[in-house]
Every structure is written in C-alpha cells, then in structure tokens.
Specification:
This protein is α/β, with parallel strands linked by helices. Helices cover 31% and strands 24% of the residues. The structure holds D-malate.
C-alpha cells in the first residue's frame, strides 16, 4: 500500500530554530481539536496538527483497532511509517526543523506517538502523551541515543486504561532510555486542566530555551 498524505494545519511561530509541537487528536477528532490547548504552550513554538487517515465509522483515527484497546499492530506499524514520512516531507515544505519536534497526543493520537517513540527511538525531541496505552504487546527495538523527555498522564478512573499496564508502559519507555515523567490523576479519560498545566510546566522545564 502506498503512503497517503494526511490533512494538516501548520502555524509557524516565525522564530528561527523554534521547536514544533506535533498535535495528534483522539478517536473522532480532527486537526482542529488540540489547537486551543497548544496555545497554552506560548507563541514561541510552531504548530503542526494532523488528522488521522483511518476512518472508523466516520470517526478519524491514526490507525485501525480490532476492539476497544486492541490494536491492529500491522496497521499501526504502517501508519506510523506513513505519518513519519509525511512529517519529514512537510519539514522541507514548511521549513521547520525535523530534529526539534515535540509530539503531543491524546488517546489514539498519544498511541501513535508512542509507536513512533518505539519504532524510531530518539526521533522526537520530546513527547507529551495524554491517556496513552502501550501500543505494541511485545515491542522490540532500540534505545534512544540520548535520554529524551516524555510526559505522560493518565486518569485513575479511566475505564479504558488499566493503571498496572500503564505503569508497565512507563517502565518500558524508561528501558528504551526515555526520561519519562508519569502522573496519575484523580480523573477519567477526559483531559483536565491539571493535565494541561502539568504538561506546560514540563515543557518549560525541558525546553526552557524555547521562546515562551
Ligand atoms: C481510543 O478511544 O482512541 C482508545 O482509547 C485508544 C486507541 O484506540 O488508540
């Protein structure tokens, strides 16, 4: 199967050498969903927001699933390569630095970001994963060449994510060499202001040289 382009929105910060936040929506969302959240990270970062190429009954997703929380791993691998190739191409067209991408994904979007962390160790400068699940049952792969920071937050009352398995996923990312900050919040699957505030603080801490 050939790679298809993804629908996207790109907003340049107008600052040379700026980082780029790569926004990846949840199931049923689109490239508009996370734009107002991204504003919380300040004007000093470029924004690239994608829409997943898979449709589940009309709901956009980044890869197919076989059931709730059961992923079509073959499709996930293909879609991850498709997305990464598209982002690389866009970096040339839109003139942003592909070495300075911080992925920011919610739910399904966090899961394809996690897949890229495992399949392309070290490709992102950092990643923010809200409500993620471990994307592969038995991942195999390398280690990041340098410890890259990862922010992860889950809800203790989220019926779709088992807290034990989420902790195993944190341990796995650490084994891959990711410097992972993990937060368990007193909430469910929906994003809260606490997720956003914690992730903005994390961003300032790790990318303080980035204009805010
Ligand atoms: C979702 O609703 O999107 C799931 O919780 C995560 C996924 O299917 O990737």
């Amino acid at each position: 199967m050939n790679y298809q382009p993804l629908k996207y929105i790109y907003r340049s910060s107008g600052i040379d050498g700026a980082h780029t936040l790569l926004l990846l929506h949840g199931t049923g969302g689109d490239e508009h969903d996370l734009l107002s959240l991204a504003d919380r990270f300040g004007p000093g970062v470029n924004i690239l927001s994608l829409r997943g190429n898979v449709s589940e009954g009309g709901m956009p997703r980044f890869f197919r699933r076989l059931g709730m929380g059961i992923f079509d791993e073959e499709d996930l691998v293909f879609r991850t390569h498709e997305l990464m190739a598209f982002v690389k191409q866009l970096s040339e067209k839109e003139q942003f630095d592909p070495a300075k991408i911080i992925a920011l994904g919610y739910s399904n979007g966090a899961n394809i970001a996690g897949s890229a962390l495992l399949l392309y160790p070290g490709v992102f400068a950092g990643a923010i994963l809200y409500r993620p699940m471990q994307p592969f049952r038995a991942p195999s792969g390398g280690k990041t060449p340098e410890a890259r920071p990862v922010f992860m937050s889950n809800g203790l009352h989220d019926l779709t994510i088992d807290p034990e398995r989420a902790r195993d996923y944190v341990a796995l990312l650490r084994t891959y060499g990711y410097d992972t900050s993990y937060h368990e919040l007193n909430t469910g699957h929906q994003l809260t202001m606490e997720d956003i505030d914690l992730s903005v603080d994390w961003y300032r801490q790790h990318f303080s040289h980035a204009a805010l």
